[in-house]
Amino acid sequence: MAALEEHFGQKLLIRSQQGVSMTDAGHAVYRHSQIILRQMEQAQADASAAGNSLAGRVSVGLVPFSSAATLSVELLAETRRRHPGILLHLTESVGQTYSQMIMNGRLEMALIHGTGPIKGVRFDPILREDFYLVAHRDFGIEDDDKPVPLAALDSMPLLLPPAYNFVRRAVDTAFTRTRNNMKVVAEVEIVRTLARAVAAGLGATIMPKAIADRIATETGEPLICRIISPRIEETLSLCVSDQNPLSEPALAVRDILVELTERLKI
């Protein structure tokens, strides 16, 4: 470490009784080191596969509680079918910031909610997601194709992700704008648990359509699934670094990911 600090002419770490933390210069060196290591791995893969099919490791982040989270198996299967030499690393985490992981070189790309801007990351809007109510029939919501007025959900017990989640923030904003009372009885970050709780009548939920459909079809219970009015929607964007070009394997995976996402519009 001393040699690195001498080379860069900057202090990279701060040591104290509380532990060790990185300086701003340390964060910069760490970010570049991650990129260099990934490029070395890709160089090794390219050399080994020279003259053959694409090969290498590609890391993709798929944001939970979105249409992106429903694409993981298809993305894995399609990548294996078209490019068996590519090692696909998929992550679907509620505890990590994908944009930061892209800037640090830990992810090549991610599907996330929002359109930016975030320095160091390029956002390409790819899909707009409408939000749907999913509720047990016991809550008295009629089963028809008409939008459910948000006012009809005033004080209804809701099961939602925590406040820092993008989906939760969109729902919070909608209730605030319409001046309706939002009654959250539990915060759930696991889709399977959320589905079981809704099916058991413990509360209703409001989710992007792909997740709402998944909850409604997987439980086997008579659940109501209807769009909300006024409409709640969010943009799903494909994010990559705006400083480091994608490798050939990553470009191939990106094309598959875009293709699969386009199918969700049909």
Automatic annotation (TrEMBL):
Record's family?
Answer: Belongs to the LysR transcriptional regulatory family.
Give yes or no: UniProt keyword Cell wall biogenesis/degradation: no
Which Pfam families does this one have?
A: LysR_substrate
> Keywords for this entry?
Activator, DNA-binding, Transcription, Transcription regulation
GO molecular-function terms, A-Z: DNA binding; DNA-binding transcription factor activity
Annotated organism of origin: Allorhizobium taibaishanense
Looking up CDD domains in the UniProt record yields: PBP2_Nac (cd08433)
Q: Does the record carry Cell inner membrane as a key word? A: no
Which GO terms of type biological process are on file?
Answer: regulation of DNA-templated transcription initiation
Instruction: Outline the extent of the HTH lysR-type domain.
Output: 1-23
| Name of the featured protein | LysR family nitrogen assimilation transcriptional regulator
Lineage, top-rank taxon, reads Bacteria
Q: Cross-referenced InterPro entries, in alphabetical order?
A: LysR_HTH_N, LysR_subst-bd, WH-like_DNA-bd_sf, WH_DNA-bd_sf
Cross-referenced PANTHER family: NITROGEN ASSIMILATION REGULATORY PROTEIN NAC, TRANSCRIPTIONAL REGULATORY PROTEIN NAC-RELATED
